[in-house]
Each structure stands twice: as C-alpha cells, then as structure tokens.
User: What shape does this take?
Amino acid sequence: MYNQLMIEKFYITTAIDYVNGAPHIGHAYEKIYTDILFRHFKKRAKETFFLTGTDEHGIKIQKTAKNMGITPKELCDINSAQFKDAWKLLDIEYSKFIRTTDEDHKKIVQDIFEKLLKQGDIYKHSYTGLYCSGCETFLNPKDLDENGNCPIHGKKPEEVSEENYFFKLTKYKDKIIEHIKNNPGFILPEFRANEVLNQLENIEDISVSRMKSSVEWGIEVKSDPSQVIYVWIDALSNYITALGYDVNGNHSENFKKFWPVNFHIIGKDILKFHSIYWIAILMALGVELPKEIYAHGWITIDQNKMSKSTGNVIAPKTVMEAYELQCPDSLRYFMATAAANGKDGNYSDIDFKEKVNADLANNMGNLLNRTLNMLVKYFDGEIKEEFIADNDLNKKAEDITTEVQKYFDKCDIASAANAIIGLVDEANKYVNDTAPWSLAKNEQMAECGKVLYNVLNLMVKIALLIEPYCPNIAKAMADQLKFDINIKYSEIQPNMVKSGKLISKEEIAPVFLRLDSDFATNKKTV
Ligand code: MSP
Assistant: This one.
C-alpha cells in the first residue's frame, strides 16, 4: 500500500544563520538535510511549507560592521545574499527566506514581547552575568571550561552588569519536563531527550533584552526604547512570524494552515534554546507546541572542527567549483550520508569521491544504463506486453518505500539513504543472478524481457525514493524511463513502466558521471 503514510500538511524549518560570515559546509549540511526532508514530504503531503533565513541582530554584527566601516544593515544585506546564493546553488527549495530585519517580523516580535510583559511572564531585573557574544547568551559559571572559557567558542565571556528584562523560564520548567516525558518522539534523536531533561534541572529565568547603550543593533522594546530585544526571542519567533502569527489571534491563513510545525531542524548546539526556551515562550503565548525537534550533529573537515583560525572553513561553492559539478546532487547525497542519525559527521575529499562514485555512479547509474542498453540491443528499446507481470521486486520496492518513510518520520535521512541503496544492491544482484545477456544468448527472449522490465520498473521506484537527495539525477532517470518525477507516493502503481517503445539508443545517457578531479591536493578554503 503506497498511500498508507500520506498526511494533510507539512511545515519544516531550519535554524536561521548568523550573518557575520559566509555560509560554510556546516550551514549547508543543515539546509541540505532539511531540503531532503522537505522534498520527501512533498511526496506525502497535500500542502507543504519550508522556512529558512538569516538571524541578523546582535552584538557580533554590530562589531563586525563597525570594523568594516559599514552599517549593520549593509553588512546583513551583503551576507544574507551570500546565504541565498549558496542555497540556490545547492537546489534548496525553500518556500520563504525570512530575515530578522524584515519589518513585519520586527513588528510581531515587539507585539510578542509586549504581550509577555503585560501578562507578567517578562519582568525587569538588575543583573550581572557572563556574556558570550559567540553564543549571544549569558553563560552560567558552571558551564565554563577549566580555563573559564565558553566551551563552544573557547573565549572568555564578558562580565556584563545591566538592568534587563527577564523571562520567567522557571515557571514553565515542570510543564516542559512533563511534555518531554509524555511525548517520546518530541526530541529527536531520542538519545538527546535526556540531555535536555538534565539541562532543565538547572534552569534559571533568562535575560531577554539588552540596554541599547551596550547593544544597539536589535529590535527596540516598544514600551521602553532604552532596551533592545535580546536575540533569542527575536530569532526563535521567526518560526511563527514568518507564517503570520498575530498576538491578538487574528492569524494569517498560512499560520492557521501550517502551525504547529512538523519538524524544527537544528544543530545539537542550539537544542537547549529550542527545546526549553522556545517551548516556554510558546506555552506563555498559548500557542500549540512543535511536533518534533530534530538535532543534527556537526560536520568536521578531515576530522577537525571548522574554524576561521585553523583556516579550514570550506564553502559549498568551493566544492562545487573544484569538482566542476554541473549540479549539487553528489554533494547533497554525500552530506546526507556523512553522519549517522544525529551524530557528528566528517567531510573529506577522498570520502566524498569514493561514496558518490560507488553509490551514484557504479551502483545506481550503471544499473540503469546497462539495463536500458540491453533493452535497446535485444528489443529495440521496446517493452512488450508479455514482459509485464507481478514479481518479487515489486513487493520489495513497496516494503522499502514504507521503511524509508518510517525513517523520514524520525528525520533519519542517512538510514533512509542506506535502505534505498540496499534496494539498488538487490536489483544489481537480481541482474547478475538472472543474467539477461545469457538468456538472450540462449534465445530465451521472453525471460530476458521480463528481467529487464522488472529492473526498469524498480528503477522508477528507486528514482522516486532518491529524488529528495538527488533531484537532478532523479529527473534524468525519469526522462529516460518516461514517468513524472513529481508524483506523490500514493500515485505509485506496481507497474509504472508501460508497454510500447520506451527509449532509443540516442536517448540513453549516463545519469551520473564519476568524480575524478583531485580536490584534496589543492584545497581552497573561504
Ligand atoms: N542564529 C542561531 C540560530 C537561531 S535559530 C532560531 C545560530 N546560527 S549559526 O549560524 O551559528 O548556526 C546555524 C545552524 O548551523 C545551527 O543549527 C548550527 O548547529 C549549524 N551549524 C553551524 N556549524 C555547523 C557545523 N560545522 N556542522 C553542522 N551544523 C553546523 O545558531
């Protein structure tokens, strides 16, 4: 049953990236990850929405812009455009790109702040704390490493003394714990839930504004212009402001249709902000909670953390250019499989080449190519009616499709990719076992035709499953197999390839060429 896992609507988001630098492979990992989930669910849902964007306020932007001698907004415009360009290059099919400097976003954030202030969830309080501008957050002295540095950024936080507004996070502690415990799939992968429960033990109320005299580049508090809204309320709210949330309940059609979000896709470093702060804010606003929050791992380069000081930061564009890639499919596929579910992964030139050459060229691409060539050689590219019969591969394809959908329900795209390549392996084994070339040699043409048909028919299902990872390759497969790559899973029939002339010799083209350039010896960084 191909239609059992269909859903009505699907809304997915990425983290919004800070714009004080250019996008790198780590940012790209998350956007590719989310795009793959999105494209898969487009095949299962009637209506879909994919939100990404840039997070543009805060002290870091203010300082960087000052050093460059430009305004913060000018810096944001330049850098935000770089993120958009990168996502275009990677075929990221977002529905909306939000910028936290968008006027409508700023207005809704101000309204949210005022609502929380009015109902007593936000209060004013004098405070001295340790502020890390890398994290854009106050750190608890307990969280620092042995040298007194931020464990993520390796820098000493600044001591800041201010009168700020605070959000009553502690008020929501018990409700959040209860929600996490009662909803085992709420935080994914499930091994991360305990981490969050531990963090909840030590939470305190959080600062949600800064004095304008120390941070200017932020959204002004409407009722107190001496303060700007501190980045996390601003940033997290993007998930609802982008849809048209309204504090008075006059929500837009998009908000009514798409909220609650199906998946928030974020990195493991910002899970606390999403599964504690954001959840508390939503509870305070009386807004329904997200269905699932998925924390992915981090990507290293040749096993090293990417950092400007090490000089090993790689931009997706650099990889595309080094290999002269005509489309981003191989990079997308590699990134999707570079890390096991929720774990860290690694990019290396050698692994990239080996993985995509093995799976996409030798395994999948070759199988299609040689099967089509045999169809042309033995049958002049024609599928005869008698080739079409029910077969075990049909059942297998249906089972794997269900398995893949279940992995996608848990955002586990690496396991899903392995299951798809497993199906390609089976098809290759089937061809080698049945040896259609021997059947043809022995003039068992009906048998030979059946084998070729079964493989080509399976390739349709494989193309539909691999499309979210490799949209261009899948489209090239669909063009040769003569079907519409944009159909939903519920439209899949057991026999997708129809009788009649399928293809001529001239139409057959490899869908993926092996990567041969040697990037490793000549690596460029951003
Ligand atoms: N602006 C905040 C997020 C606000 S969401 C309401 C932020 N920005 S960020 O630019 O630092 O990171 C954006 C996303 O990229 C995060 O989810 C982060 O985990 C991810 N990554 C940044 N570097 C990464 C790797 N090296 N590998 C994988 N993902 C990484 O945090």
